[in-house]
Write a structure and sequence with these properties.
The chain is of the alpha/beta class. The chain contains eight helices and nine strands. It has helices at about 20-25, 65-80, 100-105, 125-130, 150-160, 210-230, 230-235, 245-255; strands at about 1-5, 30-35, 50, 60, 85-95, 110-115, 135-140, 255-260, 270. A five-stranded parallel β-sheet has the order 2-1-6-5-7. α3 packs across α5 (about 150-160) and α6 (about 210-230) packs across α8. The longest helix is centred in the last third of the chain and has 19 residues, at about 210-230. It is elongated, with a radius of gyration of 23 Å. Bound molecules: 6-chloroguanine.
């Protein structure tokens, strides 16, 4: 997979040399190119932004440098044999970045990221390139960052670990908390390792029992507890078939029951009264 990143802070992307993404590059699974947007300015001050039409606070990134940068990156990539690029535009007003989108990105041969600073990029840039290639405007969560560079790091790490030959085995993705198509997406419960006693704290006995069935059941119950506590929305949208008899027993103990309103709008389960939490 080829990755291009155009940014006014190339040094912000240094972590792409480290850890999992660095390893993917070293193994030849990822070909990363980071570009300084200011290379495509022509004035003494390397200006990339200007005041917004219509007024208002902040600055808007100008069409000129972005247009020249993207034309050059596209030409260079095609020259190097890359094909079917997709543009990934990190923005707090994008669609949520999810594991499903990470899987979709991991299946594409060429991603071009355009992390912006200030109030974002002149809309005409996205509109122009959208006539030539798929454009994904994505947000990594409901909070506001000063720029899209950190989002590029997040997205790249989520995608790189899905590439064949980057993590240990392909099986390792099947159990990801947010694996697409899973009947139920549950959060992982707690994990433990040696020593068996630390500062007076032991390990749940069942994990030392060697009873694989009981261990699997315990882990499932812990995942249900954790998910109801932290992400009740994930439980609400699980279809009834997602849960076996023991799951339903555990959910019932946690105060959850099938939605009496008959799952309107895909809500199959409802949360306990707040007082019980
Ligand atoms: Cl992708 N960019 C910025 N600037 N803020 C964000 C974001 C992206 N996702 C969430 N907040």
């Amino acid at each position: 997979m080829r990755l291009d990143v155009v940014t006014i802070f190339p040094e912000y992307l240094e972590p792409l040399n480290v850890s999992l993404v660095g390893k993917a590059r070293a193994r030849g699974r990822l070909d990363v190119h980071v570009h300084d947007l200011r290379a495509w300015t022509h004035d003494r001050h390397h200006t990339v932004d200007d005041t917004p039409y219509g007024g208002g606070p902040g600055m808007v990134m100008m069409t000129g440098p972005w247009g020249e940068a993207l034309d050059t990156v596209l030409a260079d990539g095609y020259e190097a044999g890359a094909r079917t690029p997709a543009l990934v535009v990190p923005t707090p007003s994008g669609r949520p970045f999810t594991q499903e989108l990470a899987v979709e990105f991991s299946e594409r041969p060429w991603l071009i990221f355009t992390p912006a600073r200030y109030e974002g990029i002149d809309r005409r840039v996205v509109d122009e390139y959208a006539t030539r290639m798929p454009v994904y405007e994505v947000s990594i969560g409901d909070y506001v960052l000063a720029g899209g560079e950190a989002a590029v790091l997040v997205i790249t790490e989520a995608v790189a670990r899905l590439l064949p030959g980057v993590l240990g085995n392909a099986e390792s993705h099947r159990d990801d908390s947010f694996a697409p198509g899973a009947m139920a997406n549950l959060l992982e419960g707690p994990v433990y390792t040696k020593p068996p006693l630390w500062r007076g704290r032991g390990v749940p006995e069942v994990l030392l029992s060697g009873h694989h069935g009981r261990i699997a059941r315990w882990r499932r119950d812990e995942a249900l507890k954790r998910t109801t506590a932290h992400r009740p929305d994930l439980i609400e949208r699980c279809p009834p078939e997602a849960f076996d008899k023991k799951d339903r027993e555990t959910l019932s103990l946690l105060g959850w029951s099938p939605d009496p309103a008959g799952e309107p709008y895909g809500r199959f389960w409802c949360r306990p009264k707040a007082v019980e939490q």
